[in-house]
Amino acid sequence: MTWLITGGAGYIGAHVARAMAGAGERVVALDDLSAGVPARLPAEVPLVEGSTLDAGLLERVLAEHGVTGVVHLAARKQVAESVAQPTRYYRENVGGLATLLEAVAGAGIERFLFSSSAAVYGNPDVDLITEDTACAPVNPYGETKLAGEWLVRAAGQAHGITTVCLRYFNVAGAGAPELADTGVFNIVPMVFDRLTRDEAPRIFGADYPTPDGTCVRDYIHVADLAEAHLAAARRLDGKDLSGDLTVNIGRGEGVSVRELISVIGEVTGDRRAPLVEDRRPGDAPRAVASAERAAEVLGWRARRGVREMVESAWRGWQLHHAK
Ligand SMILES: NC(=O)c1ccc[n+]([C@@H]2O[C@H](COP(=O)([O-])OP(=O)(O)OC[C@H]3O[C@@H](n4cnc5c(N)ncnc54)[C@H](O)[C@@H]3O)[C@@H](O)[C@H]2O)c1
Protein backbone atom coordinates (compact mmCIF):
# COMPACT_ATOMS: atom_id res chain seq x y z
CA MET A 1 0.00 0.00 0.00
CA THR A 2 0.98 3.62 -0.45
CA TRP A 3 -0.72 6.09 1.88
CA LEU A 4 -1.35 9.75 1.15
CA ILE A 5 -1.36 11.76 4.38
CA THR A 6 -3.03 15.14 3.90
CA GLY A 7 -1.94 17.72 6.47
CA GLY A 8 1.20 15.59 6.82
CA ALA A 9 3.40 18.54 7.82
CA GLY A 10 1.03 19.46 10.67
CA TYR A 11 1.38 18.63 14.35
CA ILE A 12 -0.59 15.37 14.28
CA GLY A 13 0.07 14.58 10.59
CA ALA A 14 3.84 14.53 11.09
CA HIS A 15 3.48 12.11 14.00
CA VAL A 16 1.25 9.89 11.86
CA ALA A 17 3.69 10.06 8.94
CA ARG A 18 6.56 9.13 11.22
CA ALA A 19 4.66 6.24 12.83
CA MET A 20 3.48 4.81 9.51
CA ALA A 21 6.80 5.22 7.70
CA GLY A 22 8.60 3.80 10.75
CA ALA A 23 6.36 0.74 10.58
CA GLY A 24 7.34 0.14 6.97
CA GLU A 25 4.35 1.70 5.16
CA ARG A 26 5.00 3.75 2.01
CA VAL A 27 3.85 7.30 2.69
CA VAL A 28 3.54 10.58 0.77
CA ALA A 29 2.42 13.84 2.44
CA LEU A 30 0.32 16.65 0.99
CA ASP A 31 0.19 19.97 2.80
CA ASP A 32 -0.52 23.58 1.78
CA LEU A 33 1.86 24.72 4.56
CA SER A 34 -0.71 27.18 5.93
CA ALA A 35 0.17 25.74 9.35
CA GLY A 36 2.58 22.94 8.44
CA VAL A 37 6.34 22.71 8.87
CA PRO A 38 8.16 20.59 6.22
CA ALA A 39 11.09 19.82 8.57
CA ARG A 40 8.75 17.77 10.77
CA LEU A 41 8.57 15.06 8.11
CA PRO A 42 11.04 12.16 8.07
CA ALA A 43 13.48 12.19 5.13
CA GLU A 44 11.86 9.16 3.48
CA VAL A 45 8.44 10.85 3.22
CA PRO A 46 8.09 13.08 0.14
CA LEU A 47 6.07 16.28 0.63
CA VAL A 48 3.81 17.68 -2.09
CA GLU A 49 2.98 21.31 -1.41
CA GLY A 50 -0.63 22.03 -2.33
CA SER A 51 -4.24 22.17 -1.25
CA THR A 52 -7.00 19.60 -0.93
CA LEU A 53 -9.08 22.14 -2.87
CA ASP A 54 -6.91 21.63 -5.97
CA ALA A 55 -8.60 18.78 -7.89
CA GLY A 56 -5.99 18.62 -10.67
CA LEU A 57 -3.12 18.38 -8.20
CA LEU A 58 -4.89 15.65 -6.21
CA GLU A 59 -5.48 13.59 -9.36
CA ARG A 60 -1.79 13.86 -10.30
CA VAL A 61 -0.49 13.03 -6.82
CA LEU A 62 -2.72 9.97 -6.46
CA ALA A 63 -1.63 8.67 -9.88
CA GLU A 64 2.08 9.55 -9.72
CA HIS A 65 2.58 8.01 -6.29
CA GLY A 66 0.32 5.00 -6.88
CA VAL A 67 -1.69 5.90 -3.77
CA THR A 68 -3.90 3.06 -2.47
CA GLY A 69 -5.14 4.61 0.80
CA VAL A 70 -5.66 8.10 2.24
CA VAL A 71 -5.33 9.47 5.78
CA HIS A 72 -7.05 12.85 5.68
CA LEU A 73 -5.93 15.25 8.41
CA ALA A 74 -5.72 18.55 6.51
CA ALA A 75 -8.17 21.01 8.03
CA ARG A 76 -8.55 24.31 9.82
CA LYS A 77 -8.97 23.54 13.52
CA GLN A 78 -9.49 26.68 15.61
CA VAL A 79 -12.91 26.92 17.20
CA ALA A 80 -12.92 30.73 17.68
CA GLU A 81 -11.74 31.28 14.09
CA SER A 82 -14.53 28.98 12.87
CA VAL A 83 -17.10 31.14 14.67
CA ALA A 84 -15.67 34.27 13.01
CA GLN A 85 -15.15 32.68 9.55
CA PRO A 86 -17.71 29.88 9.11
CA THR A 87 -17.74 29.99 5.30
CA ARG A 88 -13.96 29.54 5.21
CA TYR A 89 -14.24 26.54 7.56
CA TYR A 90 -16.97 24.90 5.48
CA ARG A 91 -15.03 25.61 2.26
CA GLU A 92 -11.72 24.23 3.52
CA ASN A 93 -12.88 21.42 5.78
CA VAL A 94 -15.96 20.20 3.91
CA GLY A 95 -15.19 21.51 0.40
CA GLY A 96 -11.60 20.24 0.60
CA LEU A 97 -12.88 16.85 1.72
CA ALA A 98 -15.43 16.66 -1.12
CA THR A 99 -12.73 17.50 -3.68
CA LEU A 100 -10.43 14.88 -2.18
CA LEU A 101 -13.14 12.19 -2.11
CA GLU A 102 -13.95 12.84 -5.78
CA ALA A 103 -10.29 12.33 -6.67
CA VAL A 104 -10.13 9.22 -4.44
CA ALA A 105 -13.22 7.73 -6.09
CA GLY A 106 -11.91 8.63 -9.56
CA ALA A 107 -8.62 6.88 -8.83
CA GLY A 108 -10.41 3.74 -7.59
CA ILE A 109 -8.86 4.04 -4.09
CA GLU A 110 -10.73 1.87 -1.59
CA ARG A 111 -9.42 2.97 1.82
CA PHE A 112 -10.01 6.28 3.56
CA LEU A 113 -9.30 7.40 7.11
CA PHE A 114 -10.75 10.70 8.34
CA SER A 115 -9.60 12.89 11.28
CA SER A 116 -12.74 13.70 13.19
CA SER A 117 -13.03 15.22 16.62
CA ALA A 118 -14.82 14.98 19.94
CA ALA A 119 -16.20 18.38 18.86
CA VAL A 120 -18.89 16.45 16.93
CA TYR A 121 -20.56 15.56 20.24
CA GLY A 122 -20.97 19.11 21.54
CA ASN A 123 -21.65 19.01 25.29
CA PRO A 124 -23.42 15.73 26.09
CA ASP A 125 -24.42 15.21 29.70
CA VAL A 126 -22.97 11.70 30.08
CA ASP A 127 -20.22 10.15 32.16
CA LEU A 128 -18.49 8.45 29.23
CA ILE A 129 -19.08 9.45 25.62
CA THR A 130 -19.57 6.40 23.40
CA GLU A 131 -19.70 6.47 19.62
CA ASP A 132 -23.49 6.11 19.92
CA THR A 133 -23.86 9.28 22.02
CA ALA A 134 -25.88 11.80 20.01
CA CYS A 135 -23.84 14.31 17.98
CA ALA A 136 -24.76 17.97 18.50
CA PRO A 137 -21.77 20.20 17.72
CA VAL A 138 -21.83 23.69 19.25
CA ASN A 139 -19.58 25.57 16.82
CA PRO A 140 -18.87 25.65 13.06
CA TYR A 141 -15.60 23.72 13.50
CA GLY A 142 -17.48 20.79 15.09
CA GLU A 143 -20.17 21.07 12.42
CA THR A 144 -17.60 20.73 9.64
CA LYS A 145 -16.26 17.57 11.31
CA LEU A 146 -19.74 16.06 11.63
CA ALA A 147 -20.68 17.03 8.05
CA GLY A 148 -17.31 15.56 7.03
CA GLU A 149 -18.18 12.23 8.66
CA TRP A 150 -21.54 12.14 6.86
CA LEU A 151 -19.83 12.87 3.57
CA VAL A 152 -17.12 10.26 4.15
CA ARG A 153 -19.72 7.55 4.88
CA ALA A 154 -21.96 8.52 1.95
CA ALA A 155 -19.04 8.62 -0.51
CA GLY A 156 -17.77 5.34 0.91
CA GLN A 157 -21.11 3.70 0.25
CA ALA A 158 -21.53 5.21 -3.21
CA HIS A 159 -18.02 4.41 -4.44
CA GLY A 160 -17.09 1.24 -2.56
CA ILE A 161 -14.55 2.93 -0.27
CA THR A 162 -13.98 1.42 3.17
CA THR A 163 -13.82 4.27 5.67
CA VAL A 164 -12.76 4.97 9.25
CA CYS A 165 -13.61 8.15 11.17
CA LEU A 166 -11.39 8.67 14.23
CA ARG A 167 -12.85 11.08 16.79
CA TYR A 168 -9.86 12.46 18.69
CA PHE A 169 -10.32 13.83 22.20
CA ASN A 170 -7.80 16.38 23.66
CA VAL A 171 -4.48 15.82 21.95
CA ALA A 172 -1.28 16.80 23.80
CA GLY A 173 2.42 16.04 24.01
CA ALA A 174 5.08 15.46 21.40
CA GLY A 175 6.75 12.31 20.06
CA ALA A 176 9.97 14.34 19.79
CA PRO A 177 10.62 17.98 20.75
CA GLU A 178 10.87 19.10 17.10
CA LEU A 179 7.38 17.69 16.41
CA ALA A 180 5.67 19.68 19.16
CA ASP A 181 2.57 21.76 18.51
CA THR A 182 3.81 25.32 18.05
CA GLY A 183 0.33 26.89 18.29
CA VAL A 184 -1.05 28.25 21.55
CA PHE A 185 -4.66 27.07 21.19
CA ASN A 186 -4.84 24.13 23.60
CA ILE A 187 -4.57 24.15 27.38
CA VAL A 188 -1.03 22.75 27.78
CA PRO A 189 0.70 25.31 25.52
CA MET A 190 -1.61 28.03 26.91
CA VAL A 191 -0.36 27.35 30.44
CA PHE A 192 3.27 27.17 29.25
CA ASP A 193 2.74 30.51 27.54
CA ARG A 194 1.44 32.12 30.75
CA LEU A 195 4.30 30.73 32.84
CA THR A 196 6.88 31.85 30.27
CA ARG A 197 5.42 35.38 30.55
CA ASP A 198 5.74 35.17 34.33
CA GLU A 199 1.94 35.06 34.69
CA ALA A 200 -0.25 32.63 36.65
CA PRO A 201 -2.20 30.02 34.66
CA ARG A 202 -5.88 30.77 34.27
CA ILE A 203 -8.81 28.52 35.12
CA PHE A 204 -12.10 29.40 33.42
CA GLY A 205 -14.72 28.41 35.95
CA ALA A 206 -14.19 26.52 39.21
CA ASP A 207 -17.87 26.05 40.06
CA TYR A 208 -18.73 23.24 37.66
CA PRO A 209 -20.45 20.10 38.99
CA THR A 210 -17.17 18.13 38.94
CA PRO A 211 -15.07 16.80 41.87
CA ASP A 212 -12.84 19.91 42.11
CA GLY A 213 -15.18 22.32 40.32
CA THR A 214 -13.04 22.61 37.16
CA CYS A 215 -13.75 21.09 33.73
CA VAL A 216 -12.77 17.48 33.15
CA ARG A 217 -11.27 16.32 29.84
CA ASP A 218 -9.74 13.22 28.27
CA TYR A 219 -6.14 13.93 27.20
CA ILE A 220 -4.43 11.70 24.65
CA HIS A 221 -0.72 11.66 23.83
CA VAL A 222 -0.11 12.47 20.17
CA ALA A 223 2.27 9.48 19.89
CA ASP A 224 -0.57 7.18 21.05
CA LEU A 225 -2.86 8.89 18.55
CA ALA A 226 -0.33 8.22 15.77
CA GLU A 227 -0.26 4.54 16.75
CA ALA A 228 -4.07 4.49 16.57
CA HIS A 229 -3.80 5.66 12.95
CA LEU A 230 -1.36 2.89 12.19
CA ALA A 231 -3.73 0.37 13.79
CA ALA A 232 -6.64 1.78 11.77
CA ALA A 233 -4.59 1.72 8.55
CA ARG A 234 -3.67 -1.92 9.16
CA ARG A 235 -7.33 -2.67 9.87
CA LEU A 236 -8.30 -0.98 6.59
CA ASP A 237 -5.68 -3.05 4.82
CA GLY A 238 -7.34 -6.25 6.10
CA LYS A 239 -9.03 -8.19 3.33
CA ASP A 240 -12.22 -8.83 5.33
CA LEU A 241 -13.19 -5.22 6.03
CA SER A 242 -15.89 -3.32 4.23
CA GLY A 243 -18.23 -0.51 5.21
CA ASP A 244 -17.41 2.15 7.76
CA LEU A 245 -16.10 2.44 11.29
CA THR A 246 -16.39 5.35 13.71
CA VAL A 247 -14.10 5.22 16.72
CA ASN A 248 -13.33 7.45 19.71
CA ILE A 249 -9.63 8.02 20.34
CA GLY A 250 -9.12 8.85 23.99
CA ARG A 251 -7.88 7.27 27.19
CA GLY A 252 -11.25 6.88 28.88
CA GLU A 253 -9.94 8.79 31.91
CA GLY A 254 -10.97 12.23 33.05
CA VAL A 255 -8.41 14.79 34.21
CA SER A 256 -9.55 18.12 35.63
CA VAL A 257 -8.04 21.46 34.64
CA ARG A 258 -6.77 21.86 38.19
CA GLU A 259 -5.12 18.42 38.13
CA LEU A 260 -3.52 19.16 34.76
CA ILE A 261 -2.17 22.51 35.97
CA SER A 262 -0.75 20.78 39.02
CA VAL A 263 1.14 18.27 36.81
CA ILE A 264 2.40 21.19 34.70
CA GLY A 265 3.63 22.83 37.93
CA GLU A 266 5.54 19.67 38.89
CA VAL A 267 7.11 19.30 35.44
CA THR A 268 8.08 22.94 34.93
CA GLY A 269 8.97 23.60 38.60
CA ASP A 270 6.68 26.66 38.46
CA ARG A 271 3.92 25.89 40.95
CA ARG A 272 2.32 29.31 41.24
CA ALA A 273 -1.38 29.26 42.14
CA PRO A 274 -3.77 29.54 39.19
CA LEU A 275 -6.16 32.49 38.81
CA VAL A 276 -9.82 31.52 38.75
CA GLU A 277 -11.83 33.49 36.21
CA ASP A 278 -15.40 33.31 34.91
CA ARG A 279 -16.63 30.33 32.92
CA ARG A 280 -16.21 30.56 29.15
CA PRO A 281 -19.38 30.11 27.11
CA GLY A 282 -19.68 26.69 25.49
CA ASP A 283 -17.36 24.72 27.81
CA ALA A 284 -18.82 21.35 28.85
CA PRO A 285 -18.22 20.35 32.50
CA ARG A 286 -17.00 16.92 31.43
CA ALA A 287 -15.98 15.29 28.12
CA VAL A 288 -14.41 11.86 28.51
CA ALA A 289 -14.34 9.12 25.87
CA SER A 290 -15.34 5.54 26.19
CA ALA A 291 -12.20 3.92 24.75
CA GLU A 292 -13.73 0.45 24.46
CA ARG A 293 -14.60 0.37 20.77
CA ALA A 294 -11.04 1.35 19.79
CA ALA A 295 -9.70 -1.55 21.85
CA GLU A 296 -12.23 -3.93 20.36
CA VAL A 297 -12.08 -3.05 16.67
CA LEU A 298 -8.56 -1.62 16.33
CA GLY A 299 -6.83 -3.63 19.06
CA TRP A 300 -5.43 -0.29 20.24
CA ARG A 301 -5.27 1.39 23.64
CA ALA A 302 -3.39 4.50 24.73
CA ARG A 303 -0.24 3.70 26.71
CA ARG A 304 1.06 7.10 27.77
CA GLY A 305 -0.22 9.10 30.72
CA VAL A 306 -0.71 12.80 31.41
CA ARG A 307 2.71 13.27 33.01
CA GLU A 308 4.41 11.93 29.86
CA MET A 309 2.28 14.26 27.74
CA VAL A 310 3.24 17.29 29.81
CA GLU A 311 6.95 16.37 30.00
CA SER A 312 7.23 15.82 26.24
CA ALA A 313 5.25 18.98 25.45
CA TRP A 314 7.50 20.97 27.82
CA ARG A 315 10.65 19.72 26.04
CA GLY A 316 9.07 20.82 22.73
CA TRP A 317 8.05 24.19 24.17
CA GLN A 318 11.59 24.83 25.44
CA LEU A 319 13.05 23.95 22.02
CA HIS A 320 10.67 26.24 20.12
CA HIS A 321 10.66 29.08 22.62
CA ALA A 322 14.31 29.14 23.65
CA LYS A 323 15.31 32.73 24.28
N1 LIG B 1 -5.03 19.03 17.76
C1 LIG B 1 -6.16 18.56 18.28
O1 LIG B 1 -6.34 18.61 19.52
C2 LIG B 1 -7.23 17.92 17.41
C3 LIG B 1 -8.34 17.35 18.03
C4 LIG B 1 -9.33 16.76 17.23
C5 LIG B 1 -9.17 16.73 15.85
N2 LIG B 1 -8.08 17.30 15.27
C6 LIG B 1 -7.96 17.25 13.81
O2 LIG B 1 -6.72 16.67 13.46
C7 LIG B 1 -6.27 17.20 12.22
C8 LIG B 1 -4.84 17.69 12.37
O3 LIG B 1 -4.79 18.67 13.39
P1 LIG B 1 -3.41 19.29 13.92
O4 LIG B 1 -3.61 19.56 15.37
O5 LIG B 1 -2.28 18.49 13.47
O6 LIG B 1 -3.46 20.70 13.17
P2 LIG B 1 -2.34 21.44 12.27
O7 LIG B 1 -2.89 22.77 11.92
O8 LIG B 1 -1.00 21.35 12.92
O9 LIG B 1 -2.31 20.50 10.99
C9 LIG B 1 -3.17 20.65 9.89
C10 LIG B 1 -2.29 20.64 8.66
O10 LIG B 1 -3.11 20.69 7.49
C11 LIG B 1 -2.58 21.68 6.61
N3 LIG B 1 -3.75 22.17 5.85
C12 LIG B 1 -4.81 22.89 6.32
N4 LIG B 1 -5.70 23.08 5.33
C13 LIG B 1 -5.20 22.47 4.22
C14 LIG B 1 -5.67 22.29 2.89
N5 LIG B 1 -6.86 22.79 2.50
N6 LIG B 1 -4.89 21.59 2.02
C15 LIG B 1 -3.71 21.06 2.40
N7 LIG B 1 -3.21 21.20 3.64
C16 LIG B 1 -3.96 21.89 4.55
C17 LIG B 1 -1.90 22.71 7.47
O11 LIG B 1 -0.86 23.40 6.81
C18 LIG B 1 -1.35 21.85 8.61
O12 LIG B 1 -0.04 21.39 8.33
C19 LIG B 1 -7.26 18.29 11.84
O13 LIG B 1 -8.18 17.72 10.93
C20 LIG B 1 -7.93 18.61 13.15
O14 LIG B 1 -9.24 19.10 12.95
C21 LIG B 1 -7.10 17.90 16.02
From TrEMBL:
Class in the EC hierarchy, top level: isomerase
Catalytically driven reaction(s): UDP-alpha-D-glucose = UDP-alpha-D-galactose
Named cofactor requirement(s): NAD(+)
NAD-dependent epimerase/dehydratase domain segment(s): 3-250
Gene3D superfamilies with a match to the protein in the record: NAD(P)-binding Rossmann-like Domain, UDP-galactose 4-epimerase, domain 1
InterPro entries: Epimerase_deHydtase, NAD(P)-bd_dom_sf, UDP_G4E
Family listed: Belongs to the NAD(P)-dependent epimerase/dehydratase family.
Keyword field: Carbohydrate metabolism, Isomerase, NAD
EC number: 5.1.3.2
Protein name listed in UniProt: UDP-glucose 4-epimerase
GO biological process: galactose catabolic process via UDP-galactose, Leloir pathway
